[in-house]
Design a protein that fits this description.
- One of its GO terms (molecular function) is metal ion binding.
- Keywords: Hydrolase, Nucleotide-binding, Signal.
- Helix content is about 30%, strand content about 30%.
- The chain has about 475 residues and is α/β, with parallel strands linked by helices.
- It has two domains: about 270 residues, Metallo-dependent phosphatases (Purple Acid Phosphatase, chain A, domain 2, 4-Layer Sandwich), CATH 3.60.21; about 200 residues, Alpha-Beta Complex (5'-nucleotidase,  domain 2), CATH 3.90.780.10.
- A seven-stranded mixed β-sheet has the order 6-4-3-2-1-14-15, covered by helices on one side. Strands 7-8-10-11-13-12 form a six-stranded mixed β-sheet. A five-stranded mixed β-sheet has the order 20-17-24-19-25.
- β7 and β8 form a beta hairpin.
- About 50% of the residues are buried.
Length: about 475
């Protein structure tokens, strides 16, 4: 029969970097043309959408769908930035506009029906160049979050094993498109027989050439639209052998921008910004933010999270707020600019000793100036802790971790062993930033609201704006 070629082109974790989408489109056009005889499969592995960008926020994801439509994909897998920052209804509305590609994910189902929605399928079998190619999609496992949005999410490796077993007899090649991260991709390769190729994402790893790991080829193309992956395989139908002919990640800097995609993005961006220019609040005075010290805007957000979660204490890192706020009308676009992170409020029960440790760290430059990436954070530096419901007295010149002289909550001294109800942000529960804040005994997440929604509500409350000027940190 002779060897046949399979070509896979892939992108991942673009995170609404619209400026990279025109060269991505041109790169894929050129690569499709290069491999026209093999009829390539073009895949996006998830996190194409990111609500930090006005094009996505103002269009509820439709701007991303419009670009995907024009770029020419065969299938996409929803990442956590699609699944956890947009409701099922919003996703349904967005994906209803898709053209020519499938949305594939095997471990997501609607809680109310126990079935995937009409726009989502667990796998897809494609015929390419005389080969039957089974493509399974999987997304990151965050059950606590998905359940609050009306989803049921299954453990991905178990799902992968089940689906591989189901489709393996009907296909020549099994591809898993994984929004699970490199460690899970390696675990799949080790534990699950029958997977030929894994195209990965989620942890933003770049594999300039594919790995051959535990009998499986593993590929990934970095993040933010910096690369497009190209995989070319030879398959011998008689022997059932798959071999890698070439694998490379092309820098999109080496491709010109597609003018039609540029025009589409300009159009979508202008429409999205217009929608976001509507008023969210009106404030009669400016509210500053300072990443290195207490500030009114930081206090306002901390108080809002405390109220939103009905907690005793509110804690949020100042780095969530990127700019100060001027007096006057505050639009939804301005809120997005100053608080872009798709981060949710949460309620945790924390011991006093863990709270005190975080407060000590909030006085140290190594934490205040700590650069962060991922876990929803779209800022630059961690920043100090902004407080609500607490009074902290400290010696600025004291030794590290021995600066604090007193912490009171509701007029009573903070007790090391007591559990406190703390309103904070989901980011801390993933063990990032102030690590002791991730040691809560119980956690309740609040979805689908972001902390910028909390801030919008706070800005509409004159009493809260007055109270945010009252200090919570006192140097003695």
């Amino acid at each position: 029969m002779g060897e046949r070629k399979l070509v896979l082109l892939h992108t991942n974790d673009i995170h609404s970097h619209f400026e990279r989408m025109p060269p991505i489109c041109e790169a894929l056009r050129q690569l499709r043309s290069k491999h026209a005889a093999s009829d390539p499969i073009v895949i996006d592995c998830g996190d194409h959408m990111d609500r930090m960008r006005p094009e996505t926020e103002g269009s509820e994801g439709f701007a991303n769908i419009a670009v995907l439509n024009e770029t020419g994909y065969d299938l996409i897998v929803p990442g956590n930035n699609e699944g956890l920052t947009m409701t099922p209804d919003h996703l349904s509305a967005a994906y209803s506009h898709r053209q020519g590609y499938s949305v594939v994910c095997g471990n997501l189902r609607l809680a109310r029906t126990g079935e995937p929605p009409a726009w989502l399928e667990p796998y897809r079998i494609l015929n390419r160049n005389g080969l039957r190619v089974g493509v399974i999609g999987l997304t990151a496992y965050y059950p606590d979050f998905y359940s609050l949005l009306g989803w049921t999410i299954a453990e991905p490796l178990g799902t992968a094993a089940e689906l591989v077993k189901r489709i393996r007899p009907d296909v020549d090649i099994v591809v898993v498109v994984s929004h699970l991260g490199i460690n899970n991709d390696k675990a799949m390769a080790e534990q699950i027989e029958g997977i030929d190729i894994i195209i990965g994402s989620h942890t933003h790893h770049l594999l300039e050439q594919p790995l051959y790991y535990a009998g499986t080829f593993i590929a990934a193309a970095g993040c933010f639209g910096q690369y497009v992956g190209e995989l070319e395989f030879g398959y011998d139908p008689d022997q059932g052998n798959l071999r890698l002919l070439s694998g490379i990640c092309h820098s999109t800097e080496n491709f010109p921008s597609d003018p039609q995609i540029e025009a589409l993005i300009r159009e979508q961006g202008a429409a999205s910004r217009k929608r976001l220019e509507r008023p969210a609040a009106l404030t009669d005075r400016s509210l500053p933010i300072n990443w290195g010290a207490e500030s009114e805007l930081g206090n306002l957000l901390a108080s809002g999270i405390r109220r939103w979660t009905k907690a005793e204490i509110g804690l949020v890192n100042a780095g969530q707020l990127l700019q100060s706020l001027d007096a006057g009308t505050v639009t939804f676009l301005r809120l997005l600019e100053i608080c872009p992170s798709p981060i949710n409020p949460c309620l945790i029960r924390l011991r006093g000793e863990h709270i005190r440790l975080a407060l000590e760290e909030a006085l140290l430059d190594e934490f205040i100036r700590k650069p962060l990436k991922g876990f929803g954070f779209r800022g630059k530096e961690l920043g100090t802790l902004c407080l609500s419901g607490m009074r902290v007295e400290y010696a600025a010149g004291g030794e590290p971790y021995r600066k604090i002289r007193s912490v009171t909550v509701g007029g009573e001294e903070l007790k090391p062993e007591r559990l406190y109800e703390v309103g904070t942000i989901d980011m801390f529960t993933f063990g990032i930033g102030y690590l002791s804040l991730g040691r809560g005994e119980t956690v309740t997440y609040f979805l689908p609201e972001f902390i910028r929604d909390v801030l919008a509500k706070q800005l509409g409350d004159p009493d809260e704006i007055r109270e945010c000027a009252i200090p919570r940190w006192f140097a003695i």
